[in-house]
Every structure is written in C-alpha cells, then in structure tokens.
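Per reviewer request, we include the raw input and output of the structure prediction for the construct analysed in the revised manuscript.
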Amino acid sequence: MKKKILRSLILIIIISGCYYGYKFYKKYSVVEADIERVKVEKGDVEVEFRENGTVYPKDVRDIYSLVSGTLSELFVKEGDEVKVGSKLAVVQPGMSSADKFIPVDVISPIDGVVLKCSSDNGYGGEEKIRLVGEKITGLNDYNPTCIMRVANLSKMIVRVDVDEKDVIKIKKGMWVDLYIDVLNKKTKGRVSLISFSSKSDLKKFPVEIDIVDGLNLIPNMSATVSAVLEKRTGVLRLPLSGLFDEYGESFVYLYNPETKKAKKTYIKTGLRNETYVEVISGLKEGDEVYTDKPLNIEQ
C-alpha cells in the first residue's frame, strides 16, 4: 500500500514538474536566444545611385550629302583630325555617269576627328565610312546615307540609362562621381541632360553627364557613375533585417528585457537603403528588435 502511495506521489511530482517546466519554457524560451536581435542607433542613412555607362563625345555630327549620287572622292579616313570647313568628300549627283551635274563638296561642320557612322545611322545600318564609288542618298531623301561622323573629342560625356525609381531624384547640374574602368581613374562629372523618353519597356531613362576633367578618353570606354541621391544625418536608424511589413505598414518585434518577450510594434519609417531604414517614430535609441518572428509574443 505504501509503495502504491509512493508511486502516486512520484507520478504527481513528475507531472507537476513537466507542467511548470513547460510554463517556464513558454515564459523564458531558450529558442529566443537563437534569434538575432539588432539595436536601434543613431547614424546616417544615404541612398546611393550606381550605374554603368559609356563614354561619348559631347558634340558628334553625322555627315550627309546634300544630294543623292555617287561618292566620287574621299579625302579623309578614320582617326583624321579635321577643321570646320574642311573638304571631306565629293559627291557626283545623279544615278549614272551619264548625268552631267556639278559635283557637290561635303564639308565638315566642326573641328574634330573622323569616325565611322554608328550602326544605327545610315542606309543598311552599317558601322563604316562610305567608300569611293558607293551610291548614297542625300538629305532630301527619305533615308539619307551617313557618309562618316566628325566628333569633337575635347569635350566628352558619359551616357547612362537610369531606372525610373532613381531618375526622379537626379537633377540637372548635379555632381556625380565617375570611375573610368580601363584607366583605373576617378573623376567628377555634372548632369547635363535628363531625357524624358524611356528606352523600350525597361523603364530606363537616358542621362548625359559632362566630364569636367581633361582625361585622355576614347569613345565607347566604360564608366561607372555613382552619386548620393538622398542622405539623413544623425537620425535614428534600424538595420533592415529587423523590419517587417504587412499591408503597407511597417512593424518590428520589440524585445522587452523585463518579460523576456517580444511585442509586435508598429513604427513609422523614412529613408531606407539596402542596409538601414530611418526610424521616425515608434522606437527609441537602444531598443532591440528581433530579425525573425519569435515564439513568445506579448498579447
């Protein structure tokens, strides 16, 4: 009989221990220790823009003939330097040698260097300088032939396609940082043109940046463009890993050091980047929040 009573008492103790142990676990779960917590602190939050672009001459002219006919003479080749008014070529009007029209000179409109026509200009879309004997169409034709290009290399720009979320923050006259990849050199640039026509369905907008330093640049070199678009200094900030969103509202799981539990707390946020988010209200400096949903959440 005594043994039965003893067994019953032991069983009751075990059951009670399991029950109160479970309650203690629910109150101070060790699982919470495995979830990282991050602190709210004061610091800077800045949004940086970074894109890859291409170097081009600022002033480039496609050279056309005023009349249609045959390219009878050519006085320059790719890379030659020319002056404004220099004779570049001669076009014999008419579509056959029997046509006795006065030859027409093709003149350079600017000082610069002779380049090939780009692949998106001229009949056939070829990247080349037209050769003697080729048939060309003049400016009065529906599709005039690009004979060559003349570019002033003393002033260079970087062209870059900017995403729609960033282009609205870029202003004409804004200074940007440029890194010329092949030269391993940094320089400054200034935004000179923002196009409002997006390219295809990618919603990217062409932006031109004047290069202010006289580097020895060649067209089609690669360049990296970067700039700080927005910055908040000395504000409350939270690592982005501790922020959650639902139905357009931001919240955190705020750690309570007294109860060892978390409280779901809605906050108001401001500027954010890939690392931090600005905290406008709802948290104070030194608060800790979980980076994942904890088990013990205050109701």
